[in-house]
């Protein structure tokens, strides 16, 4: 039974849809073994809010309250459905500036989160995944795809060293709005690739897990996050891989997992690492060494 460690809902995320409980119910219906609830951590400056949040009159204070409500609801669901699915309560992190290191430490301590997804959504303070317009603004600031990609992986490097997230979210999100040929060229540049390899080595060194994120296909990309070359690099270095649908609402649960199966086969991935809870409720790391033979893939097509 597969897994996902990266999810959102419209109840607690302004660019999501539907209630968190409906997400959980759909994960149960689709026979997920473990499902991670990981709403975005709050941001702490009005200048860091997204346009959709400003339109909804959000403030850093309202986002903090919303996150608190999320954790309370997620813990309720974790208890309510414990006999049907293992739910982990975490958060997808931001690292817009170095001061976020302190904020993340406080967040983890206050809420005793089961795990965190370490993601990077900004480069040079500009969000790169909200819209193509903002992506182009960021690209123009750096002057070339290669320079943008270098900066992205350097900021990711800072986040990884500071946070050491259990799950590394969409490692190469910087591809999201890039022209395919330009992105491929930038990724292959020795200065960029050396940064990717450095980051991969660091995560492996502290025992982190890399998600294979299927939402990339919703954005029209050829590969999942990370791309095939990076997945193969991680395998060569004996790194750990897991699965995530990056759900943004109930109907996104297991999104593109049919393509994900093919992606695992193409990249030669047959072992998936996963976080779960032991009998004492402690988070533990385990492995599924027969992921490709799992009956889940057949059941997914029938739900």
From TrEMBL:
GO terms in the biological process aspect are: L-histidine biosynthetic process
> What Gene Ontology molecular-function terms does this entry list?
histidinol-phosphatase activity
State the EC number(s).
3.1.3.15
Q: Does the keyword Hydrolase apply?
A: yes
The pathway is: Amino-acid biosynthesis; L-histidine biosynthesis; L-histidine from 5-phospho-alpha-D-ribose 1-diphosphate: step 8/9
Catalytic reactions of this protein:
L-histidinol phosphate + H2O = L-histidinol + phosphate
The molecule here is called Histidinol-phosphatase
Q: What is the species of this protein? A: Hesseltinella vesiculosa
């Amino acid at each position: 039974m597969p897994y996902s460690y990266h999810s959102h809902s419209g109840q607690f995320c302004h660019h999501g849809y539907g209630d968190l409980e409906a997400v959980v119910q759909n994960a149960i219906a689709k026979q997920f073994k473990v499902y991670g609830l990981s709403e975005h951590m709050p941001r702490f400056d009005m200048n860091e809010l997204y346009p959709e949040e400003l339109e909804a009159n959000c403030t850093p204070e309202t986002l903090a309250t919303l996150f608190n409500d999320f954790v309370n609801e997620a813990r309720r669901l974790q208890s309510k459905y414990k006999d049907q699915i293992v739910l982990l309560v975490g958060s997808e992190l931001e690292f817009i500036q170095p001061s976020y290191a302190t904020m993340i430490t406080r967040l983890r301590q206050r809420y005793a989160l089961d795990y965190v997804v370490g993601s990077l959504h900004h480069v040079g303070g500009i969000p790169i995944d909200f819209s193509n317009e903002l992506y182009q603004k960021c690209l123009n600031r750096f002057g070339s795809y290669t320079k943008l990609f270098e900066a992205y992986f350097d900021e990711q490097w800072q986040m990884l060293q500071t946070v050491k997230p259990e799950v590394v979210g969409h490692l190469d999100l910087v591809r999201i709005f890039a022209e395919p040929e330009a992105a491929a060229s930038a990724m292959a540049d020795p200065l960029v690739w050396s940064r990717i390899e450095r980051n991969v080595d660091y995560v492996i060194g502290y025992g982190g897990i890399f998600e294979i994120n299927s939402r990339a296909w919703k954005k029209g990309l050829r590969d999942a996050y990370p791309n095939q070359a990076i997945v193969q690099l991680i395998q060569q270095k004996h790194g750990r891989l897991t699965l995530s649908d990056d759900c943004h609402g109930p109907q996104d649960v297991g999104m593109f997992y049919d393509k994900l199966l093919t992606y695992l086969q193409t990249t030669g991935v047959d072992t998936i690492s996963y976080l779960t809870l032991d009998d004492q409720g402690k988070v533990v790391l385990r492995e599924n060494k027969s992921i490709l033979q799992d009956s889940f893939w057949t059941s997914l097509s029938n739900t």
